[in-house]
Structures are given as C-alpha cells and as structure tokens.
Description:
Elements: E1 9-14, E2 28-29, E3 33-39, E4 42-50, E5 56-63, E6 66-70, E7 76-79, E8 84-94, E9 101-107, E10 115-121, E11 125-132, E12 137-140, E13 145-153, E14 161-170, E15 177-189
Amino acid sequence: MRGASHAFFVGKATSMEKIRPRGGDMPSPADRLSVRLARGEYESLQVFVLAGGKDLKNVRVEVSDLDGPSNWLFFREKFSATNVKVSVVGYVQTRRVPPYTVARITPSDREKTGYRRVSGKAETGWWPDPILDYLDRTDVRGDDLQGFWLRFRAPRAQAAGVYRGEVAVSADGVEPKVIPLEVRADGFEVPSKTPLP
C-alpha cells in the first residue's frame, strides 16, 4: 500500500509520456496538477491510479469548478469543470518485436525542455493507446497502473488568470484522494482556423 492514508497511489504525467500498466516506468506522485493554455486551446495531462495489491472498483477522477481572479468587489471568475473531459486510457498488447526502432519521450533533469527522446528496440507487452471517451470510470486490478486522460479546453471568452480547484480520485469503499489543481489561462487566443493550407 502506498501513501499514509489512502489505499492507492496516484501519479501524474504529461500528454507526451507513454506509461505502461505493467513493468514499465512509474509516473511521478501527483502531489499537485497544473496546466496552462490560451483561449480556444486544448491541453491534456494524465492521472494514474495504482491499486497497491487490492482490486479497486469503480475508480473515477472528478474535477471541481475552479476559482479564479477577482473581477469586482465580490465576484470571482470561474473555470467550469465542464471545460474538462476525463476519459479512461485503454491499453493494447503487443506480442512480437517489430523490425524497427521506436522513439519515446521520457522525463530528464539534464535537458532544458525537461524531456529527452530515447530510441531503441520496441518491447512487447501492454501499451497505452486508445483514449476511451465513452468511459469516465473503470475497475483497477491489484498491481495494474490505470491511466486517466484529462483534456482541458479554455473557452474563447475565458478571463485570463490563475484558477484553482481540486481533482478527486476515488473508488468504491476507500477514502478519496484530493489533489490541488491549477489552470493558468493566458490572455490571448489561438486562431480558430489554421493559417496553413
């Protein structure tokens, strides 16, 4: 069991990282979550649940409404939870090693970007692939690491500023884990259409 008062471990990763459910890299602990986006932009991040040896039923990740900067004397801007879509990450099994090398993005303290590209022979096993938009909850087996995809959208009328709320990770019969969430909305918009043909 990981964590002092919770029956499960919660981790986080960027949308660029592929975290395997078994035998792969462990995500960093989700002590806080943050995302930054412009008006009209979509950004994603991942939350992971590791059951810690005991099966978990009905695991879900729920996002609260977020409070933002004060606009008037008693009025605070809001970032609605309806602007966040939570989906279960699905996994596919590979059984044969392909005849080509595969590149992966991994976190790195040595690179300016915080990530490095690693190329090598592909590994067999279970890999994250489909985002199951029709599922917002799932069961998690004892030693499996289950991913959830959080897709944030900033409306074009969203006021610029920092918005704070919470992400609650829960399952049937266990104490939920609540993680602070910060969304930074920039004061500019992305184009509604691409300038490229």
